[in-house]
C-alpha cells in the first residue's frame, strides 16, 4: 500500500476576512513550505485572504474555494449547552465547519492536515508516512462526569486516501455533534482509538502539542522562551485562547501584539523559531 503523500492541507477564511492576513498565518504556511518541502500546499477557503503577507505566500499555494453550505447539519445544537452558546456568541462556529472539511479532504486525497495556528519546527519523521492514519495525543480533557479522558487533537493529522479511521470518524461526527468545542472531534477520535486501535497510529503529545492549552502552556509559547524542543515537530498555538484582545483568561497577550518587530527582537519560544522564516 502506498505511503501517505507529501502534500499539506490548510483550511482558512471560513468567515469574512475583514483584516489583512496576520503574520502568524503567513508563518504557518511559510514554515510548512521550508521545513517539510511538500510536493504541494493546498489551501481551502471561502473568503480569500488579502494583504502583504498573503501576497507573499499565495504563489506557493494551490487554492481551492469551498462550497458555502454549512458542514454542521444541526446548528440548533449550539443552544443546548453553555459551551455551545458561548462558541456561537463568540463567532467560532467556523472552527467546527473546518473540522468536517479537513477530514473530507484527507479522505479524498490523503496527505497532512494542519491548523493555521501551527508553526513547523523540524520535518515530520518519514516513518509516520508509512502508517494509514496518524494523530497526536493532547492533554486529557474532563468529560461530562468530571473524569479526565484521553483526547486526540485534530490540529495535525496524516492520512492515506480513504483510510478507515477518518472515514468512521467523519460518519460519527454527524451523529455526536452537540455544539461543544470537541465532543465530535478530539473526544470522538479518542473513543474510536479504543474501538479501532489498528487503524490509527497515535504519537506522543510532545510531537505536536509540547505546550498545553493552559496558562502555563500559553505563556511558554508566546511570553517566555522554552529551549526544550527535542522531538517537537510543530508548535500548536491554541490561538482561540488568546487571539482576541478581550480574551484575557489565559494571558494578556493577543494577536495585535504579535508583530514582525516583536518576533525579530523578543525571545519567546514562538518568536525564536518563527523569525527564521521571515528572511
Structure in words:
The protein has helices at 23-36, 52-57, 82-90, 93-109, 164-176, 183-195, 205-209, 215-222, 260-265, 269-274, and strands at residues 7-12, 40-45, 62-65, 111-114, 118-120, 133-142, 148-159, 201-203, 234-236. It is of the alpha/beta class and 279 residues long. It has a single domain (7-207), classed as Spore Coat Polysaccharide Biosynthesis Protein SpsA, Chain A (Alpha-Beta Complex), CATH 3.90.550. The strands form two sheets. The protein has a seven-stranded mixed beta sheet, with helices on both faces. The model has no long low-confidence stretch (mean pLDDT 90).
Can you give me a brief rundown of this structure?
This protein has ten helices and nine strands.
Lateral arrangement of strands in the main beta sheet: 3-2-1-4-7-6-8
**Order of H and E elements:** EHEHEHHEEEEHHEHHEHH
Low-confidence stretches: none
Oligomer: single chain
Report on the biggest sheet. Answer: 7 strands, mixed
Count of DSSP strands: 9
Round the Cα radius of gyration to an integer and report it: 18 Å
Number of domains: 1
Gap between N and C termini:
39 Å
Class from helix and strand fractions: alpha/beta
Percent helix among the residues? Answer: 25-40%
Query: What share of residues are in beta strands?
Result: 15-25%
**Helix count from the secondary structure assignment:** 10
CATH-derived topology: Spore Coat Polysaccharide Biosynthesis Protein SpsA, Chain A
Can you tell me the overall shape?
globular
CATH architectural group: Alpha-Beta Complex
- Mean pLDDT over the full residue set: 90
CATH class: Alpha Beta
Amino acid at each position: 500500500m502506498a505511503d501517505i503523500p507529501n502534500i499539506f492541507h490548510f483550511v482558512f477564511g471560513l468567515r469574512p476576512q475583514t483584516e489583512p492576513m496576520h503574520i502568524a498565518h503567513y508563518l504557518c504556511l511559510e514554515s510548512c513550505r521550508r521545513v517539510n518541502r511538500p510536493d504541494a500546499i493546498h489551501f481551502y477557503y471561502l473568503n480569500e485572504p488579502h494583504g502583504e503577507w498573503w501576497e507573499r505566500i499565495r504563489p506557493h499555494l494551490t487554492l481551492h474555494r469551498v462550497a458555502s453550505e454549512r458542514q454542521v447539519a444541526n446548528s440548533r445544537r449550539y443552544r443546548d449547552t453553555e459551551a455551545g452558546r458561548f462558541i456561537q456568541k463568540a463567532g467560532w462556529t467556523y472552527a467546527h465547519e473546518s473540522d468536517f472539511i479537513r477530514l473530507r479532504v484527507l479522505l479524498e486525497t490523503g496527505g497532512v492536515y494542519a491548523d493555521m495556528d501551527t508553526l513547523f519546527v523540524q520535518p515530520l519523521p518519514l516513518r509516520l508516512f508509512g502508517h494509514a492514519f496518524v494523530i497526536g495525543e493532547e492533554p486529557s480533557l474532563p468529560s461530562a462526569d468530571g473524569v479526565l479522558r484521553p483526547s486526540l487533537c485534530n490540529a495535525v493529522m496524516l492520512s492515506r486516501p480513504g483510510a478507515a479511521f477518518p472515514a468512521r470518524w467523519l460518519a460519527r461526527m454527524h451523529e455526536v455533534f452537540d455544539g461543544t468545542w470537541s465532543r465530535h472531534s478530539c473526544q470522538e477520535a479518542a473513543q474510536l482509538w479504543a474501538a479501532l486501535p489498528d487503524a490509527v497510529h497515535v504519537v506522543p503529545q510532545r510531537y505536536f502539542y509540547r505546550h498545553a492549552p493552559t496558562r502555563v502552556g500559553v505563556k511558554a509559547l508566546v511570553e517566555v522562551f522554552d529551549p526544550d524542543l527535542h522531538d517537537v515537530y510543530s508548535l500548536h498555538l491554541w490561538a482561540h485562547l488568546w487571539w482576541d484582545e478581550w480574551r484575557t483568561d489565559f494571558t494578556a497577550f493577543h494577536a495585535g501584539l504579535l508583530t514582525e518587530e516583536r518576533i525579530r527582537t523578543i525571545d519567546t519560544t514562538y518568536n525564536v523559531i518563527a523569525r527564521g522564516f521571515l528572511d
